[in-house]
Amino acid sequence: MKSQEWLYLKRHPAVWRILLGILVIPLFYAGLFLASVWNPYGELHRLPMAVVDRDRPTETVHWGRTVTQSLINGKSLQFHRMTARTAQRELKDGRLFLVLKIPSNASETLSRLATTPRQLRLTYDTNAGQSTVAAKMGATTMQKLQATLNQSAIQAELQASQATAVTAGKGLTTSAQQLGQLSQASVAGLPVSQVAAATQKIVTGLTQGGEQLRKTRRTDQLKQLAMPIKLVQHDVVGVANNGTGMAPYFMAISLFVGCITLNIIYDAGTRHGPHRNFAIAWLDKMGFLWGFVVLAASCMWLGVRYIIGLRPLEPGSTYLLSLLIVLAFFSLVTCFRLWLGLTGAWLMLLFMLFQIGASGGTYPIQLTNPFYRAVHPYLPMTVAMAGLRHTISLGGSITGIIWILVGMTAFFSLGTLAYFYWHRSDEVVL
């Protein structure tokens, strides 16, 4: 018995194209998304970081310069030397992911580690508001780096101890030579009181030199202080929780999915009613759909705000920006849907899946492949997420982002208007 479904497909080859299109969706989703998160920790050397060296060297130790040069020349991490002001500005703007600060007393503290042990605190700044994942990755990286910094600190202290020992040894040698000369002078007939005073002075010098040598041998203190460096994380822009940090990513995806779903289910190209003028018909159709997507975005906002518990830095701006984002997304998707039919909706679905991987919502875009990094700045979801990050966590101006979204809305709305003009003679469905 032959399958009726196979016979139907044989008589309607167009259905094959639809099924093949659906067939590749899981492949696209799995492949594109996995490609963006394939080996992020193996690409940490692509994350730009900065080191701010404020250390003032001592006579025997210049630890800040040594560590800075080592970090810059290292291959495992991408460190750049910067001033504090430049580093903080670029960290907040998202061009840096971590700033390590070496304090002014670093060399002085480490040079006295054997005699006056004191832990040196180094602060590294991250920006969870820009990327919570990057901030966590920075903390993990610094934990691994701490062992290297501790080893470097102990080496610096040992060099200082060796220098002290050499100085003390030279002092003992000089004092011994002076004592020998004094003995010869006493034999030569110098007054006894002068010889005694000089002898006392030399003995005092020998005692002090011996004390210096004794201090340099106190290696047990180095063993007790196995971790002279303590790294402390500081977020320049903190977030309440992981959900707040990921909100821009998921809000952008939700709005794009809503626009695609609406265009698949609801026919935006068929005109209803007695309107014969294409502009009036377009305004009637688009006015209704614009109102609908604005309502959908408002429902999303109310849910994340009052049910999920999102607390944006600028609630009003976040809501209004969400409305502008959904209008831009809807105009884009609808334009493709009208001109290319269901194929256009299918292409927009694939485009959304591509953006999920290439917009850098999960891991920083620097950790993905070169193609994703190249197209990342030009994706609609990238622009939307950047704006939402500012209104939710970072603060600052979003004027440029608003103009981009307004331009998208206007351009693709003209595309839908052109479709209505091109099909102005089509039959009106009452």
From TrEMBL:
Highest taxon, organism lineage: Bacteria
Domain ABC-2 type transporter transmembrane: 16-414
Keywords: Membrane, Transmembrane, Transmembrane helix
Primary residence: membrane
Gene3D superfamilies reported in the protein's UniProt record: abc type-2 transporter like domain
Transmembrane annotation, as ranges: 14-38, 246-266, 287-308, 320-340, 347-365, 400-422
Subcellular location: Membrane
Membrane topology reported for the UniProt record: Multi-pass membrane protein
InterPro entries xref list: ABC2_TM, Phage_infect_YhgE_C, Phage_infect_YhgE_N, T7SS_ABC-Transporter
Pfam families to which the protein is assigned, alphabetical: ABC2_membrane_3
Name of protein: YhgE/Pip domain-containing protein
Organism encoding this protein: Levilactobacillus tangyuanensis
